[in-house]
Amino acid sequence: MDQTETQRRGLILINTGPGKGKTTAALGTALRAAGNGMRVLVLQFLKGSWHYGELDSIARLAPDMEIRQLGRGFVKVGGAEADPEDLALVADAWRVSAEAIASGEYDLIVLDEINYAISYGMLDPEVVAKVLQDRPEMLHVILTGRSAHPTLVALADTVTEMREVKHAYQKGILAQKGIEF
């Protein structure tokens, strides 16, 4: 096998950290991939109750790029028991994700906010790692969300941590259409 063949393979990328821009960076990479003729799937684990601008943009790129919201919005955290409905939605989102990863139909899959589902104890990181290890050789996968699990960080090829330096919300400025959603 020549060096070129060993250099070309699917990557696992993680966008994590407390700063803004994890999903936005993943969507930028997804847009780049679609522009290069790659088939892209974006699966949003927790989002579902708000209308995000990326839904309309990605719909215009079909069939090369597809997005699915698999949650119902924000989930309760911080000592509260996870709502059984949220647990069921995360389990279903993972089933959809694992099937898509194994399908061979895509060149890039974004698992948006999966790190939250894992850090909230709603999804087993070992199960996720196993599916990622067994994925098709050329499939790229991006995982987003704060608090990326150490097992997945160790498995990833590239990990980017966003950190907040300053945020408009600290001045009382609410989320802006087209910027945050």
Topology:
Blueprint: H1 3-7, E1 12-16, H2 22-35, E2 40-44, H3 53-60, E3 65-69, H4 84-103, E4 108-112, H5 114-119, H6 125-133, E5 140-144, H7 150-155, E6 158-161
Parallel strand pairs: 1-5, 1-6, 2-3, 2-4, 4-5
Description of the structure:
The chain is of the alpha/beta class and 181 residues long. Helix content is 38%, strand content 16%. The protein has seven helices and six strands. The protein has helices at residues 3-7, 22-35, 53-60, 84-103, 114-119, 125-133, 150-155; strands at 12-16, 40-44, 65-69, 108-112, 140-144, 158-161. The protein has a six-stranded parallel β-sheet, with helices on both faces. The longest helix is centred in the middle third of the chain and has 20 residues, at 84-103. The model has no long low-confidence stretch (mean pLDDT 90).
Short description:
The chain is of the alpha/beta class. The protein contains seven helices and six strands, in the order H-E-H-E-H-E-H-E-H-H-E-H-E.
Shape: globular
Order of helices and strands: HEHEHEHEHHEHE
What structural class do the secondary elements suggest? Answer: alpha/beta
Q: Strand share of the residues? A: 15-25%
Low-confidence stretches: none
> CA-to-CA gap between the ends?
45 Å
Mean pLDDT comes to: 90
Please, how many helices? 7
Number of strands: 6
Q: Main β-sheet: number of strands, strand sense, barrel status?
A: 6 strands, parallel
What is the radius of gyration computed over CA atoms, rounded to a whole number of angstroms?
Answer: 16 Å
What strand order characterises the main sheet? 3-2-4-5-1-6
DSSP helix fraction: 25-40%
